[in-house]
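Two records follow; treat each independently.
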Amino acid sequence: MLGKDRYLQAREFDMLGEVATVGYRHPDFAALGRSHINNKMLAALWRESPLTKIAEGQTLMTMAALLHRDAEDQGLLQCLIKASGLTVEAWLRRYLEAYLTPLLHCFYQYGLVFMPHGENLILVFENYVPVRALMKDITEEVIVFDPKQELPEAAQRLFVETSDEQQLLYLFTDVFDCFFRFLGAQVPNQGLGNEEVFWKEVAEVVREYQAQHPELADAFTRWDLFQPTFLCCCLNRLQLSNTKQMLNLADPINSLKFAGTLGNPIAKYKGGTRDEVQGTRKELPDG
């Protein structure tokens, strides 16, 4: 399905396949079921190497590394942008086109979501600029919401039925709250401008994707990424409430815990983002 999609092909979005797994299940615990934590204590997984998917001159980095600051408090994000020779806005745009737009397309076109946090996402760089993204850890962290998608029998367990609000929450929580919130904060912390520089680019990339896909206009209205607020999903509470199994994989939606709402940082740009936000541009410092 995804391998034949022209938009994803153009973005060179790809996934690292899981070649083989091996695990040991103690006979005394077998009666507890395959999903029981005690039957998952000794296992190994072999995944495709990302080195087989890059061209000469390209390099790899986990997306989580973009948040790194060294012992002298110098941020990797600042160093990458400065080395690239691009403006802050241009670099962020290239990053968002590599990472965010494939996720938007998978959601709006196929009702498909991943868990695309920093450690699960490998960025491919050329000249210090992100050019494409590779997803990993996709066996148990993929959900299909669209009932019209024809899934092989072995993959039918991926289909989950839930509300529109909770479907869209997979973008708001996993992307906006759990990664962009921290990456956006790196912009002022590393002297790259104020945080609006980042969120303005996010909004612009979303709007451009929508303009490129008028056939999905109804979906953009139904799942409005510019809505004023979204539910606050408390992932830490999940981990603390059950340290052995964060989510019930048989019913992941009803495992979630919520506490109030969060303001959507791109809601203000619903009508357009071309007008410059005053005082956001700043030259990179030397050093």
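The next record belongs to a different protein.
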Amino acid sequence: MKAINIEALTRDNVRRLTPYSSARDEFTGAEGVFLDANENPFPSKVNRYPDPQQRELKSKFADLRGVRKDQLIIGNGSDEILDLVFRAFCEPGKDFVVTIKPSYGMYKVLANMNDVKLSEVALDHNFDLDVDAILAASEGAKMIILCSPNNPTGNLLNKDSIKEILEKFNGLVLVDEAYIDFADKASMLDELTNYQNLMVSQTFSKAFGMAGIRVGVGIAHEEIINILNRIKPPYNVNGISQEMALNRLGRIEEVASEITQLKLERSRLINFLEHQDAVIRVYPTDANFVLFKVSDANKYYDRLVEKGVIVRNRTSAFGCENCLRLSVGTKEENNRFMEVFDTINI
């Protein structure tokens, strides 16, 4: 394994921090007369605090992904995981982080929230990594963030390129895999045993179809997880969300079936778009959306909205001029998009 000094990467105040200990951290039993947490004693579904460490959820998710539960941290969406990483490792007003462009806009928001400079390195003409440019920009950086499959481009980043960055960069490399279940190639989780500086974030919002419960997962070396647990809020994932996520994990065959259906619909949408004279280019995708280029994205977006079909206008994103991003819907929703798009004349 490539090893790094994780303690040295950590902010000084976080290294000295004694984490908050909640009542449910100090007693983890399921039976008893609970008079320790100042809760309302009258029974309801939500009168008791949830498990602050999400132990059962970690155990089930770890089994699904083939990792250990001590390698997991659960967050209120993967955005909270990313925020915790910024707060644990990046000194405000001093450190900087590198990411790619175009990519997920929340990285810049989180960097600004934490007063951390963000350097963006352009992807190449195929929306893939320029390893030399990333490594050059990352000299002295605390972290590199890579979204794979990338949003808004949809493509899976080259795994060998990510491994080269992991090998040559001595900071943390966070790979955001929100859309990984829609890709045919393996997750970077396979590399956790080889790189101590690798962290992977995943989510229940996409393939699991649970955007409304806000549950994200960070997977990394246990030393990184221990540091993040020092600053994690005590009850950051509510009990209802934990229960619903566990229920969904118990129906994993249903999830797999939905992913298969969405992949088939994705292929159908791509085939439709590739045969439209109005479409200049359809970009390869490993996600549950398709990025495509038209002559005037603003006009096409407006025409679609007029007919009640809402896509995402990405023309303002770097390298995505006149591009629209189309989420894969149900067969009926996709049929409606195709019907409307076919009638637009610009």
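Discussion point: The two ends are 56 Å apart (CA to CA). How would you locate this feature using only the token line?
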